[in-house]
Amino acid sequence: MDESALLAVVPGRAGLQVDLVETPGGTVELKPLADLRIRVHSGEPVQGLCGTQRFVYRRGDVDIVAAGQADIWHEDGPGRSVVLRFAPALLERTAQEAGLPTGRAALAPRHQLQDAHLAHIAWALDAERQAGFPNGRLYAESLGTALAVHLLGRYTLAKKALPSLSAAQLRRVVDYIENRLDEDLSLPVLAGVAHSSVSHFKTLFKRSLGVPVHAYVLQRRVERASALLRQGRLPASEVALAAGFAHQSHMARTMRRVLGVAPSALRAA
């Protein structure tokens, strides 16, 4: 696969190039490059084989080839594609201009995307290439910027961090639960401790600890009951109340479900 054929530098966008690549069929190999590549199939449908997986490339199918990525596959017939090739610095610069976090500019490799907007940018840049860039630098720069913004918005590896409880909020809530584990805790009260609405608190708590509020409280009650039973100082009925269970039978059922053992087994241990 000759990636230098019919290559043109897009004016005004350092590192952005557009290339029409034609392959005769057979083995197609992508060499690893320092550049990122967007490959948009522009010819007739072509069938092929990658490993053991059959595929059909149709006009508009998009591949994202990450920097340093190599690939190899077999095509049953001739193929044609528009390849946009650019340095990672183009994405990094656009991310900085947009105020995005550091590291947001890394692209994930993708195959056979259906992305009409990305294909439209590729067609427009290729049309400009064929015509000798008659619309000038401003038009080409606008297309290059649109390409970078679209890629940053949809195909970067880094994901926006979802909000969770702050360290101070989480500490207040956990301490409140620990100090009142034997009480009838409620979501509105716990949300109030975190200075949050109930619906928001439920979501933030799960993101912070990985489990829903009720599951966390239940787990802590089981752990406290287990510790008290092993100490052997209180009868099982008092252990149940001290750990926040409604009664001894409730504690026994919960411990069997969570730990797979009965309270009497822990007492004996």
TrEMBL record:
<dbReference type="Pfam" id="PF12833">
    <property type="entry name" value="HTH_18"/>
</dbReference>
<dbReference type="GO" id="GO:0003700">
    <property type="term" value="F:DNA-binding transcription factor activity"/>
</dbReference>
<keyword id="KW-0804">Transcription</keyword>
<feature type="domain" description="HTH araC/xylS-type">
    <location>
        <begin position="171"/>
        <end position="269"/>
    </location>
</feature>
<dbReference type="InterPro" id="IPR018060">
    <property type="entry name" value="HTH_AraC"/>
</dbReference>
<dbReference type="InterPro" id="IPR050204">
    <property type="entry name" value="AraC_XylS_family_regulators"/>
</dbReference>
<dbReference type="GO" id="GO:0043565">
    <property type="term" value="F:sequence-specific DNA binding"/>
</dbReference>
<dbReference type="InterPro" id="IPR009057">
    <property type="entry name" value="Homeodomain-like_sf"/>
</dbReference>
<keyword id="KW-0238">DNA-binding</keyword>
<keyword id="KW-0805">Transcription regulation</keyword>
<protein>
    <submittedName>
        <fullName>AraC family transcriptional regulator</fullName>
    </submittedName>
</protein>
